[in-house]
Amino acid sequence: MKLVHIYRGIGFLGIGAIWIATAQNQGGNIPPGTTRYKLVVPVGLPTPPIAGDNPLTVEGVALGQRLFFEKKLSGNNTQACSTCHRPNAAFSDVGNAVSTGITGAKGTRNAPALFNLAYQHAFFWDGRSPSLRAQALAPIQNPVEMNQTLTATVQKLSADSTYVSQFAKAFGSAGITPARIGLALEQFESTILAGSSKFDLFQQGKATLTAQEQRGLFLFRTPFNPRQNQFGADCARCHGGPLMSDFDFKNNGLDTQPKDLGLADFTNRPGDIGKFKTPSVRNLSASGPYMHDGRFQTLEQVVEHYSDGILPSPTLDPGLAREPGGVRLSPADQAALVAFLKTLVDPQFAPTVIRP
To answer: In angstroms, what CA-CA distances link 53 with 25, 100, 136, 183, 200?
Structure first.
C-alpha cells in the first residue's frame, strides 16, 4: 500500500495574519528502533502541534494508515474508517447527507472531511472528543457505525501476525491495545494536510483568479456592516486564517428550535443548544453535502442560506444576529462567492485522484 502523506504545494499566506511553516520535527522522544517521520507542511500553514506523547514515526504513520483502511475494525468486516472518509473526496462521505453503518442503520450527522486535524482541539460536530486518538476509537464502538467492541478489535488484529509485528515495530515493544490503535490512527490522520489549492497558488503569484472569483474573494473577506458602508459576506470572521476556520462552536441559524442539540449534548448547557463545530471551507466542492446534518446538497444552497436564510434563535451566533435574515447578497454576488469557494480545493483531494 502506497503511503498517503505527502501534501506539498506552496501553501496559503492567509486571510488575516501571515503564516509561514516548514517541516520540523515535532513531538517527544520516539520509540526505540523507529524512524522519526518528517512531516512536510505546505508553506503558509503553521507547523502543527504534534502531541509530545505520540511523536510521528515512519512506522507509526504506516500502521495508522493500514488501520484506517482495515475492515477488521468493524463487526462484520465490511467497513473501515475509509468507507465513510474517502481519500479521493477530502476524506469525506461525499454525496451522502449521513452515512450508513454495518447493520444498515443511518447516522444522524454528516461525516466530516478529515484534513488539517493536527491543528484542532476538539472533535466531532459537538466537540465531545478532546483528542484525535479518542475520536478515532469512537466509530469502531458506535452501534450505528462499525459496531464492534475494542476487545474484539484487539483479538482480530492479534490473530494477524503481520499486525503483531507492525505494532511491535511502531511502538518499540510487543502488544496490541486499544490505546495503541488510537495512537496509530492519530499519527496517520495528523499527516493529512491541505494547503495547496488554486487560491494558495494565487496568494503566491503563481495562479490567476477570474474576475468572478476575485469578486467572491472580496465578498469573503469583507464584513457586513451597512453603517460603515460594508456589504460583504463576512465569511472570514469565522473562516479566516490559513486553516480557514476558527474551529469554534456556533449556532449558524439553521433552525429556530434545533432538533439536534449540538454542543449542548456534550456540555448540557442551554446556551450551547444548536451550536456545532465550524468546519474549514477548504475542499468544500470535493466534500458535500454540507452542515452537520448534510441538509444542503450544493454550495449554492449554502451561500443562499447565509444570504437570506438565517433563522433567529436564543443561541444564534452574535455576528449572524447582527445581520437579520442574512447578508442579502445579489444572485450575481452569490454566484461569485461560490466561484471563489471552488478555488479552495487542494488537488490532492480532488475526486479524480486515486488512492488506496
So the answer is: 14, 34, 17, 9, 32
Instruction: Please give the span between the terminal C-alpha atoms of the chain, in angstroms, as a whole number.
Output: 7
Residue 87: C-alpha distances to residues 72, 242, 327, 334 (Å): 19, 22, 34, 29
Domain 199-347 has CATH 1.10.760.10: yes
Residue 283: DSSP 8-state: T
Query: Residue 111 burial (CB < 10 Å; 0-12/13-18/19+)?
Result: buried
Closest listed residue to residue 62, CA positions, set 179, 174, 171, 193? 171
Q: Quote the pTM value.
A: 0.91
- Output the CA angle 61-163-78, nearest 5 degrees: 90
Q: How many CB atoms lie within 10 A of CB 120?
A: 17
Angle at 149 between CA 144 and CA 155, to 5 degrees: 140
Q: How far apart are CA 294 and CA 288, in angstroms?
A: 8
Domain residue ranges of the chain, discontinuous segments joined by +: 199-347
Q: Tell me the three cell numbers of residue 296.
A: 444542503
- What would the pLDDT profile of 12-54 be if each residue is shown by its tens digit? 223 332 233 334 446 689 999 999 999 999 989 999 999 999 9
Separation between Cα atoms, residue 144 and residue 237, nearest integer Å: 35
